[in-house]
């Protein structure tokens, strides 16, 4: 149909009560060399569908005009619910749902910097976080109601999986410190997941407007653009706003047109690039993405960073394609997307390389190519073992501040076979994710030990932020000593000297850029400490700090070993294996424990309660059962009725298997879990919420 004919059809307006079908034009608009019609909407959005676009988060953490959560995009069959995503204009005054579009600001009302941290990292203000939690809870309630009414639904819309990812993103904002920039990215990640859940529920259980000749669409929904008449029919029947794009020579002669309108251009959508006063450590896979499935998927990417993996939503079946949506054929000038994401096949580098799998967020290459949890890869050439046992690493630390050992694990360290021939030829250098507790109790200089302790406490928040957002390898003891000895006071963006360069690489230039002045007080978990009086803290308080180091190192080393021995279980895009690891530890925290109150009693593997200990020992047994060389006499699960003696016997064998496996892979003893310190007292004679321990070290049953 010619342009003159279409315009003539538009001038002959049909009667308002005349029935409109899916291929009629309730409205019509001209855009470039195309006509755009809609059978059920009152406006025509500017279509950003004719070429690949560069995708990366902008100043507000969103994706501008090509963001399906802000503006209608080309329909995607894999994300079939996207047309039902709520529009901001429909909910911006709603007391709850408006928080799905909240813009976090770098002000004390929104972003609270961690007290005492040497680096400017922080978290969302508790009041703001509470509002986000209300959003999450209300969505979850709607999801649970839908699940109860549809217990046998096995369709492609995985609303429960998306809801779990949404809650995990929310908990990240509560549990871990980040730079402000990274906080923006995680807030918008949570919002996108929440909007997706909202859209899924609307798609699965829509509330339709009353019937009318014009078949009005649900105007609170985002809608979708398509070039396929079949999809237009489906969306029209579902009351989803739809816009059909026609080439000039494909418009039918008998097109029914009610009204000709101008294109509606987006307003109030941020298009400026990211520019922040503080650094960021989360990076995005910059690339050009086609409209449709690829762009929808990229908009929904979430960070999968090192150990602290962010919750990516469970992706739809990649085989699902849009019927007839042959956009590339219709627009041959569109270019395929490219990504800076890469995948490693080296199991020794399993821990700190993010899985690609379309995982939109990546990190820039670290200085000196620190690509794995331990330097060194798996060589094809056979080399002689070069591991020389370090007897000092196996010795018990004789200091009253060291937390009590756990019998099964202490015995395992004594009984492990330390033959260097067992160690692989490419065992990495000795290194640790957190400082080894021995650094704070060994050595002749009490002044140096105190300096180590002080510098660790003021750097702890920054290091946890680094672990949560970047490719971080474990650190060799020499670098930890150099850092803890002097660097927190000297490090700056204009550093010099080998040790300073290593420390800057340790924390990364982004965190170095947000270094702050030395604080007077530091927050350690739920305890406030005066740095001036740090030398006066009691043994139990110091023991809590050391226990925190033992526990963190154990958790991170467990994941490192699991990724080496069971790499196939980490190849999926789903966080199932990491979830299984988390189940070994009590509470709802991730691998890192930042400000959780110190435990009141021994929990998890260290519990003195028989049934609790059974539960956590069984979880660990089930995890390591997939490792090579798993003992055949441990294959049977621990039943709830198992005796205390049976539980102790299994724990001892599992602990020995873990310690031996770690030594065989890494050539050194692992850092193993310990009991919490005993005989807690107050700090400086004041009540600072130091929680008393409830038990002494466990001994095996007689």
Give the gist of this structure:
The chain is of the alpha+beta class and 702 residues long. The protein has helices at 3-11, 88-91, 126-149, 159-175, 180-204, 229-237, 293-299, 327-330, 391-394, 407-415, 446-469, 477-490, 498-512, 539-565, 576-582, 610-624, 644-666, and strands at 27-31, 34-38, 44-45, 53-55, 111-113, 122-124, 224-226, 242-247, 263-264, 283-284, 287-289, 361-362, 521-524, 527-530. It is elongated.
From the structure above, extract its key features.
single chain, 702 residues, alpha+beta, four-stranded mixed beta sheet, two-stranded parallel ribbon, 14 strands, 7% strand
Commentary on this structure:
The longest helix is centred in the last third of the chain and has 27 residues. The chain starts with a helix and ends in a 36-residue tail after the last helix. Helix 10 crosses helix 17 and helix 12 packs across helix 13. The C terminus is likely disordered. Strands 1-2-8-7 form a four-stranded mixed sheet, covered by helices on one side. Strands 3-9 form a two-stranded parallel ribbon. A two-stranded antiparallel sheet has the order 4-11. It is built from 17 helices and 14 strands. The protein is elongated, with a radius of gyration of 29 Å. The protein is an alpha+beta fold and 702 residues long.
């Amino acid at each position: 149909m010619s342009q003159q004919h279409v315009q003539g059809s538009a001038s002959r307006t049909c009667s308002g009560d005349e029935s409109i079908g899916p291929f009629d034009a309730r409205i019509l608009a001209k855009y470039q060399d195309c006509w755009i019609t809609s059978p059920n909407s009152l406006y025509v959005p500017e279509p950003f569908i004719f070429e690949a676009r560069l995708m990366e988060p902008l100043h507000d953490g969103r994706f501008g005009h090509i963001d399906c959560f802000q503006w209608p995009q080309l329909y995607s069959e894999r994300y079939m619910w996207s047309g039902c995503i709520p529009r901001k204009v429909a909910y911006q005054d709603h007391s709850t749902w408006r928080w799905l579009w909240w813009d976090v600001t770098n002000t004390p009302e929104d972003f609270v910097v961690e007290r005492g941290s040497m680096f400017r990292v922080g978290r969302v203000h508790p009041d703001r976080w509470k509002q986000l939690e209300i959003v999450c809870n209300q969505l979850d309630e709607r999801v649970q109601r839908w699940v109860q009414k549809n217990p046998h639904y096995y369709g492609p819309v995985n609303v429960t999986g998306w809801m779990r990812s949404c809650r995990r993103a929310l908990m990240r904002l509560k549990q871990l410190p980040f730079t402000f920039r990274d906080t923006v990215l995680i807030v918008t990640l949570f919002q996108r997941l929440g909007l997706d859940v909202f859209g899924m529920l609307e798609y699965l259980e829509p509330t339709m407007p009353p019937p009318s000749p014009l078949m009005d669409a649900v105007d609170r929904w985002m809608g979708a653009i398509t070039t396929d008449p079949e999809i237009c029919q489906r969306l029209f029947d579902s009351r989803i706003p739809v816009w059909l794009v026609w080439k000039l020579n494909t418009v039918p002669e008998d097109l029914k047109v009610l009204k000709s309108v101008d294109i509606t251009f987006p307003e109030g959508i941020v298009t400026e690039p990211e520019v922040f006063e503080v650094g960021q450590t989360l990076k995005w896979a910059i690339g050009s993405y086609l409209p449709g499935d690829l762009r929808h998927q990229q908009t929904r990417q979430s960070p999968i960073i090192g150990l602290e993996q962010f919750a990516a939503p469970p992706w739809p079946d990649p085989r699902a394609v849009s019927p007839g949506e042959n956009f590339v054929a219709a627009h041959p000038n569109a270019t395929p997307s490219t990504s800076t994401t890469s995948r490693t096949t080296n199991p020794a580098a399993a821990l700190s390389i993010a899985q690609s799998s379309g995982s939109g967020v990546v990190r820039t290459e670290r200085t000196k190519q620190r690509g794995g949890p331990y330097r060194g890869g798996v060589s094809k050439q056979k080399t002689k073992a070069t591991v020389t046992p370090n007897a000092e690493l196996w010795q018990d630390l004789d200091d009253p501040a060291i937390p009590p050992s756990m019998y099964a694990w202490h015995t395992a360290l004594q009984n492990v076979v330390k033959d260097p021939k067992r160690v692989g030829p490419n065992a990495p250098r000795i290194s640790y994710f957190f400082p080894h507790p021995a650094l704070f109790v060994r050595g002749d200089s009490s002044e140096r030990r105190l300096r180590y302790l002080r510098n660790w406490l003021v750097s702890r928040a920054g290091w946890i932020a680094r672990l949560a957002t970047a490719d971080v390898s474990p650190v060799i003891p020499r670098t930890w000593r150099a850092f803890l000895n002097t660097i927190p006071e000297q490090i700056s963006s204009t550093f010099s000297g080998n040790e300073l360069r290593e420390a800057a690489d340790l924390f990364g230039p982004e965190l170095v850029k947000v270094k702050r002045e030395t604080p007077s007080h530091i927050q350690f978990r739920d305890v406030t400490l005066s740095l001036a009086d740090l030398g006066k803290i009691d043994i139990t308080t110091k023991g809590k700090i050391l226990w925190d180091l033992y526990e963190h190192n154990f958790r991170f080393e467990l994941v490192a070993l699991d990724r080496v021995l069971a790499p196939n279980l980490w190849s999926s895009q789903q966080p199932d294996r990491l979830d299984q690891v988390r189940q070994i530890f009590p509470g709802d925290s991730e691998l890192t424990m930042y400000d959780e109150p110190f435990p009141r009693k021994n929990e998890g593997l260290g519990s003195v309660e028989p049934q609790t200990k059974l539960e956590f020992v069984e979880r660990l047994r089930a995890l390591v059962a997939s490792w090579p060389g798993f003992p055949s006499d441990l294959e049977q699960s621990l039943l709830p009725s198992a005796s205390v003696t049976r539980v102790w016997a299994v724990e001892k064998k599992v602990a020995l298997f873990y310690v031996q496996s770690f030594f065989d892979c890494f050539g050194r003893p692992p850092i193993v879990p310990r009991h919490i310190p005993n005989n807690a007292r107050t700090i400086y004679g004041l009540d600072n919420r130091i929680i008393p321990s409830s038990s002494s070290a466990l001994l095996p049953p007689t």
